[in-house]
Amino acid sequence: MRFRPLLALMLALCLTLVTACSGGAKAVDRSSLTYADIHNTGLANDCPTLSDSARGSISLDPGARYQLREICMHPSEVFVKGEPANKRQEAQFVAGKILTRFTSSLDQVYGDLKLVDDKLTFTELGGIDFQPITVLMPGGEEIPFTFSSKELVVDATGTALTTSTDFSGSYRAPSYRTSNFLDPKGRGLTTGYSSAMGLVPAGDDFSGETVKRYVDGTGSMNLSITKIDSETGEFAGVFTAIQPSDSDMGTKAVVDVKIVGEIYGRLEQV
Length: 270
Hints:
Elements: H1 4-22, H2 35-38, E1 58-59, E2 66-81, E3 93-98, E4 106-116, E5 119-128, E6 130-136, E7 142-148, E8 150-157, E9 160-161, E10 166-173, E11 217-229, E12 234-244, E13 256-269
Antiparallel strand pairs: 1-9, 2-3, 2-4, 2-13, 3-6, 4-5, 5-8, 6-7, 8-10, 10-11, 11-12, 12-13
């Protein structure tokens, strides 16, 4: 019994030495991994990153054509704006737990980057640019939404891509539901019943949950570049996006969702 404090002290010292020598967690290079190394590990959902020493810059030629490719956006935190406790207070964003574990990241997104009159403009053209995500709130409510970069157009000032470049703009957030989705009472947009089973629609007062329609939303996004490898054209940073949640085909009130995470990509001249 008297040796337990000594053993605990030795174990803590060993863990401290191992952590110090390892230098902390390191980014995994997915290019060197096989399918078996990645399958069911969640590594495919992580974005590549750059070392902290990547503090370069890339000058752009106004007459040249550029693209941002291999863009990856990995949500690390999601906040949902809740109702204030009273009318005198403003609604605050509350942190939620991401339930969608391995398929929450956007990947291989690409688009044109143009330099006109000392302004950089990125226009998204395609890629794996949307992911359905569900978050669990502290009270037990689940909030679904479609994280997206569809039709993203963001601007930044300057003539070069640097570690101080900040893009901001808007994008389209598609509906979480599709036209063939049926709610628990069998109602849908193109399939299912026109009203809850056993009930007859009784005018506009009861059409809120019955009349389904496809509703897109609009989100705003800020991209902050913090790391650049001028030799490879790679860049990394963080992003913040605010967009509406799912409306259940236009039958439920939406709430604002804030997504925060890491971004990675590559600048190429085409």
